[in-house]
Structures are given as structure tokens and as C-alpha cells.
Amino acid sequence: MEANILPSVKTQNEEIILSTKNASFFYHDKTAVKNVTLNIKKNKITSFIGPSGCGKSTLLRSFNRMNDLIPGASVEGDVYYKDQNLYKSSIDPVKIRQQVGMVFQKPNPFPKSIYENIAFGPKINQFQGNMDELVESCLMKAALWDEVKDKLNESAYALSGGQQQRLCIARALAVFPDVLLMDEPASALDPIATLRIEDLMNDLKEEYTIVVVTHNMQQASRVSDYTAFMSIDRDRIDERIGVLVEYDETIKIFTNPKNKETEDYITGRFG
Hints:
globular; Rossmann fold; disordered N terminus; 27% strand
């Protein structure tokens, strides 16, 4: 299996793994998000926060071309994985999705056994190693091995919601990604399961870059190293066009934001 299909690039002595430059996103003739420029650093957790409808998930999905699956979706500007523009015609989105994995809002295990959920992707990619070891390794990384090691052949649907979400994370890890995109990964979970996911994210950033969309500002402040605050363009409020208002280290966003709109959202004055 290919390890990295695209070479890396360093900016100011820190490696940038995902970036956008003047990127705008459209659904048919409607602008969803306009003119976003940001750099996402390797082995960090970056959170996207902001009110509903501001384009957080659209921006997130652009990094592995999941928006391609939505009829009428299009992009202007540049979106990079390492130093390669993801939307060049020569780029294979299937390979990109191997390296930039996705975990969705609601757990979506396959209607298969726990073991086969993990093994499915590697089998498609003609993995030649020891499958048992790979399954165990991914389940251990997802902090799930001890809970399922004696029932690997049982249906994934028998797991709790929190366990199913960790299984989906393990499944994403099985194809050797660099990046995990997480779209509200704990919104459907109870507080205890949510804490497990947050702890897991902190463990995983030693090996992976994580980008997470969350409506939970406390979660963003707890788990992320960097935070991007997105909102609706105030000059075109009726059109509901998403914009990036501010992007900085999380501690600065939550304690000393530069933009008044960021401060108002963080303190609950709007949103």
C-alpha cells in the first residue's frame, strides 16, 4: 500500500498538512462558504466552531473531497493536502480518502462483524500484512480492544453508541491515514462516551492530524490546539454565506479573541 502519495511541505518550521487559499464552495448557484484561507498543522487537533449553517462541515469535507458526492457541489480557489491541490484533475479522490479519513456525526458501522468492519478497507486495498494484527492494532488505538476482543465475530450493531463510534474510528485507521476528519463525532453520545472520544482524540494526535467540527465550545476548548471560528457573512445575511472570521491557537480564541464577533459568540451573545 502507498504510504504517502504526496510529498510534505514545511512552513515557518512547522509542517502544514492541510490548507486552503482563497477557497470558496458552492452548491449549484448558491455560495456556501467564501474566500477561506487557513493552514492546518500536522499532529495537532483543529476545531471548527460557529453557528449552524456557516459552512463548517462543507469546509471539513473539502479536505477529502466528500463534497464531490453531493450533486451540484463545486469549488473555486485552492485546497491542499500537503503541497498538492486536491482538486486537480490528476488527483484520485479515492486515494485521498485513504489518507484523509472521515468519521461522521452518527456512528455508521457496516452490517458486519466487528472484525470485518476493520478488515473491510484493508481487503479492498489488497493489504498483504497480518490482518489479525492490524485489526487488533486499530482497535487498541481506538481504545476498544479490551471491550471487544472476545466478541470480534459478533455484529457491530450489538455495540453501544459510543463503542460504535470508536469502532468507526478504528475502521478509518485501518487504511493508514495521515488525517482524521471528524464531523460532530460526539454529538449523538452521552457525556461519558463523549469523554472517551475526547480522550481518544488526544491520544491519536501523537500519530495523526485531527480536524473536528463541533457545536460544543467546551469540547473545542478542551481538546483542540487550534480553533477556527466561522460565521455568516454579516453583509449578506439573507444569503447565509459562511465565512472564516478568526483562526488562532485555541487558548487565544477563547481568552483573547481579536475579533468582536468571535468574542460575542464565545460569550454567548449570539449564535
